[in-house]
Design goal:
Elements: H1 2-40, H2 44-56, H3 63-78, H4 82-98, H5 107-127, H6 138-150, H7 157-181, H8 188-211
Helix pairs in contact: 1-2, 2-3, 2-4, 3-4, 4-5, 5-6, 7-8
C-alpha cells in the first residue's frame, strides 16, 4: 500500500519534470534558430551580437552553438580595426564563459583566442593617445594580459558537486518526511531519521556554498 501511494505521487512529478525539460530545450532551440536567422540577415557588429545571443541560449549538443562559434571566429578575422576585432573576440570569450555549468563548453576555443585578445589589448593600450606607452611596453602588457585571461577563478568542482547533491538530498528528505512521517498515524522513527538526514544534507549544502 505505501509503495502504491509513493508511486501515485512520483508519477505526476516525473511527468511534470520531463515536460518542463522538454519545453525548456524546445524554447532554447527556437531562440537559437531565431538569432541565427538574425545573424544571417545582419553584418558587422550587429552580426556578432546576434551570434552572441545564439551562444547564450546554448543547450547540450546544440548544432547552432557550434555554428555560431565557428562563424564568429571567421567574422573576427574579417575585421580590420583593432577595437572591432578586440570586441569580436572578447564577445565570443565572454559568451562562452557565461554558458559554463559543471564543465566549460568550447574550452579549447577560449584557450585559442586568449593570446589574440591579449595581443589586441596590448596594441589598443599602446595606441591610445592618453597612455604614455610605446612599442617597448608591448611584451610586458601582453604577458600581463595573457596571465589575466588564463587565470582560472572557477569554483571547486568537488564542492560544487557536493552543493548540488546535498541540495537534492535535503529537498528529497523534506518530501520523504511529509509523505512518510507526517501522516495520520505519525511514525516517530521516520520523523527522527528524516530530520537527522535533513540536517546532514543541509549542513553539507551550506559547506558547499561556502567552500565552492
Amino acid at each position: 500500500m505505501p509503495e502504491k501511494k509513493l508511486s501515485y505521487y512520483l508519477k505526476p512529478i516525473l511527468l511534470l519534470l520531463i515536460f518542463a525539460v522538454t519545453a525548456l530545450l524546445t524554447r532554447q532551440f527556437f531562440y537559437q534558430l531565431k538569432h541565427m536567422n538574425e545573424a544571417d540577415a545582419s553584418s558587422g557588429i550587429e552580426k556578432i551580437k546576434a551570434f552572441e545571443r545564439v551562444i547564450l541560449n546554448h543547450f547540450p549538443l546544440s548544432p547552432y552553438t557550434k555554428n555560431a562559434v565557428d562563424k564568429i571566429l571567421i567574422e573576427c578575422e574579417g575585421f580590420i580595426k583593432t577595437d572591432e576585432k578586440l570586441y569580436c573576440y572578447e564577445t565570443l570569450r565572454s559568451s562562452l564563459i557565461q554558458i559554463k555549468s559543471f564543465y566549460q563548453p568550447y574550452e579549447d576555443t577560449i584557450k585559442k583566442i586568449n593570446p589574440k585578445i591579449a595581443e589586441l589589448r596590448a596594441e589598443s593600450m599602446i595606441s591610445w593617445e592618453y597612455n604614455n606607452l610605446t612599442k617597448k611596453d608591448f611584451e610586458r602588457i601582453y604577458t600581463a594580459q595573457l596571465a589575466l585571461l588564463n587565470y582560472n577563478n572557477a569554483p571547486s568542482q568537488l564542492w560544487s558537486a557536493v552543493t548540488v547533491f546535498s541540495l537534492i538530498g535535503w529537498i528529497s528528505t523534506i518530501i520523504f518526511l511529509i509523505m512518510k512521517g507526517f501522516t495520520k498515524n505519525q511514525n516517530r522513527r521516520y520523523i527522527v531519521t528524516g530530520i537527522l538526514i535533513y540536517l546532514v544534507f543541509f549542513l553539507l549544502w551550506l559547506c558547499g556554498l561556502y567552500f565552492a
